[in-house]
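Journal club side-thread
Mid-discussion, someone asked how the predicted structure for our own chain would compare to the paper's figures. Pasting it here so we can look after the session.
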Amino acid sequence: MNALTRMKMNIINKIAETRYVRSAIEDKADLSAFKKKPSTRVVLGISAIAVSYIIGWPAVGALAMLTFYLKKPLIVAIGGPITYGLSHLVFLLGMYLAGADYTRTFLRWATRVTIEKLTSSDLVE
């Protein structure tokens, strides 16, 4: 095993020793939370996030086209930042409503799967 491979394995082992990773592996973190029907609050949150993408850059782009067509640069100069700021606020509202449970579940599962693959004997060779 060359020095670079040893260094990679040392880093992977250090990460695998953290409490978060050990907990994800010991609990056999999975995606079972995604099988349950989401609450109305979560659905509203995800919907708000989707709407925020629609009123983000597409709306700013539409304002830019309107500015070009009407030859009124203040439309995009003022409306662009306001529209983009509004989309950011709607996104934050969506994140608040949706909550962190699904994100936490996914990250624990992804951590477990990644570390298990990185520490498998196939990669050591």
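Post-session note: The chain has a mean pLDDT of 88.
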